[in-house]
Design a protein that fits this description.
By secondary structure, the protein is an all-alpha fold. The chain is 58% helix and 0% strand. The chain is rod-shaped, with a radius of gyration of 18 Å.
Length: 48
């Protein structure tokens, strides 16, 4: 039972990481322009 629990925990962690890569959460609050967060969030579009 312990090994199954450990295996499930590893699989769940791997799935969480894969989901974060494929479907990132809203990170707008952590993206800043040179004018700060307020100005960065107004634009709505981020260019690479």
């Amino acid at each position: 039972v312990a090994s199954q629990r450990e295996s499930l925990a590893r699989a769940t962690a791997a799935l969480d990481r894969a989901i974060d890569v494929l479907m990132p959460r809203d990170r707008a609050a952590s993206v800043y322009s040179t004018a700060g967060a307020e100005r960065a969030m107004r634009g709505g579009v981020i260019q690479a």
